[in-house]
Amino acid sequence: MGASVLAAAEAAVQAIPPAWPLAATVAVNPFLGQATQTMDQTAARLGRIAGLRLALPRRHVADKIAEGVVVDADLIAALRTSPLLGRMSLSDVKAAIAVEPQAVAALPTVADLAARATGQDWPGLIADRIGAFAAGYFDEGQALWAASRRNGLYAAWRAFATHDLTPDILGLNGFGSHVADTPETAQAAIERAAATLRLQGEHGTYFHQLLLTLGGWAQCARHLQFKADLEGDTETTALEFLAIRLVFEEVLYLRTASAIDGDWQAVRTAHAAPVSVDRDHLIDDLLLTATERAAQRRLAGLLATPRPAEAAGERPRLQAAFCIDVRSEVFRRSLESVDPGIRTLGFAGFFGLGVSHRGFASDVPELRLPVLLKPSAFSCTEAGDTADADRNARFTARAVRAWGRFKLAAVSSFAFVEAMGPIYAAKLLRDSLGFIGGGRPHRVTPDKVTLEKAKLDMAKLVGAKLGGAKPCFSPSLDLDRRAVIAETVLRAMSLTEGFARHVLIAGHGANVVNNPFASSLQCGACGGHAGDVNARLLADLLNDDAVRDRLAENGIHIPDDTVVLAGLHDTTTDRVTVFANDPVRQVRPEDLAVLDEWLWQAGQRTRAERAARLPSGASGGVLRRSRDWAEVRPELGLAGCNAFIAAPRARTAGLSLDGKAFLHDYRWEQDDGFRILELILTAPVVVASWISLQYFGSVVAPSHFGSGNKLLHNVVGGMGVVEGNGGNLRAGLPWQSVHDGAAYVHEPLRLTVLIEAPRQAVADILQRHPEVQALFDNGWLHLLLLDEHGHVAWRYARNVIWTEENMAAETVAPGAH
Length: 817
What we know:
Number of helices: 30
Largest sheet: 6 strands, mixed
Low-confidence stretches: 435-467, 809-817
Distance between the termini: 57 Å
């Protein structure tokens, strides 16, 4: 039995999604471990082990039908691709919408059965004691006394649990002695517990259920394994967590076996049965598909809207490259509307530079690239007098840390509050009432003075004064390698000719205060950091004469008068900071003044549009939100995302996509061997799917895949939050990120990927990457192809089979969807 038990344990670990720490939070697909199953199968599995239903109440769809958003054609199209075809008619589907399915109850664990038998909350005790231990074990510098990590998590927990009197005090007599008698290795403990519990073929879904009961702690451990897998290393922390959870099950079973054995036998039998998809699961999937069809129909009509042809032969006045992030869509559209000579591009916000970056006066590497990739280059931030500045900055940081620890220490904290508390009254009053320096209220209409303050705030965010410290590649990166990187990035951006006099590379970041989830608002493509470093590094590369000479040898001629500038788009204020002192090429002051005016006007228009979607979001309030320490919604992040479009910008220029689409510039005619298309499908599309599915899970199953209410959060160990005083770590999105207090701000739809490229090229890539093909085959994403006019022409079914589509028949006016 040993080999099968451990194989099942490993499979259960793989079913848990990773969770990144707060310092560099990135979106994670909560169904990552179920990508090889269909969504129906996953819904059935999670219903069994967690009592979850992966759908909003059916009245949500009924409201959409009543509003005319979902029509009969959408329901019929969804029914044609459903296993219910032939078993249900359109009228049957409409009748089913009026009937809410019964709530799903998870199979009980041993702890649940013991709680029923004894009247004591054993699941609560387990969550509390594991949480108390894990908070110290995973601590990243917040705790004054961190737990030992010697010999791994399981060994550290045994040392902790043998001296923890809480279980005994609460009635679990002899718990410490039982732990002392457990095997010394996690694998042996799992095998022994499985034997004690008489688990047979049912241990797979049961092990998965036990890990789910650990919430974010299991995901935190899975993150360590995820990173180790990328490096080719071995990591067993998540497996050791399962062993710990099984020890609790074992001891509770031994104490209550006579009372729960009959029920436990029934639970084991249920776990051993195959996971089956029932009629309600199929109906939920059909209704979700119909809602998605409605959104696709509206988007297809929007793309079919006739638009003026792009002027050919005219040199753009400005080319600005932004991240594909949906928040950039609104700003790009606003910027293009300021002047007809402005062109924007969309590319993943790390701009093809997978760097491990060391910030100024820091030895901690920041991985500024998608978490699916490994860094291929190294960089650091340098200043003029590097040695002295570095030393002084380190001394300052140490003093700040020492002062912070003094304020929080068990003894000195009381004296600190008594003696120093009144000094903080003014700051508390100022922050509470929304005042900034000089007593000036920052609840004002957006003017350039206020935005200059925001610009300086953003400068602090990126860790350098404007024109001061600058990120640089490691000297080991020679000219040949730099030229290859530059060429690869330009070709991937479809920017190989027609360069403007000024090219802006704009990363993005979010300047917020008092927000544990600040990094989740940063650039996901940059690993949860702001995109300034990557933008400045790329601009430096493209301004280098030696690199330009090499590019010219390969057919990419950047004119001598072209200057590449780096910028940072603050997505909370929509202010773009331009690092004007970075370029080795001179920029005329009058040109900078024009650029600043364009960006200022674009920011005004973007803020006005965003304000309409934000709670109490008057235009002046958009600026205030980023500095309001009591604001739980400084911005809405990527809420609303539902489409990924890889096509020439001409297909979407001038169309209002409402900040719901990832926009990646792509011209397949310029893609030799479809290498760029392969990169798009295997990296940006996958990352976008993680984001989309994280929002989906946080809406439909917030108890398991969301992080709860921000108002109740406490930061634990610097790496996560709990709701209230302890218990399970919460991973995923806070409720305030998906709901504005009155309604959802995110519609839970699976991402629709639209690509303008030949069918055969896409099919070949999917067949070379079965893990990506599985996302489409199993219904986690939709794939549509655009024809040479930008109209939806083909739909991917599964197994590389396509069906012809004609969704452009209904033309929708810009902005109507």
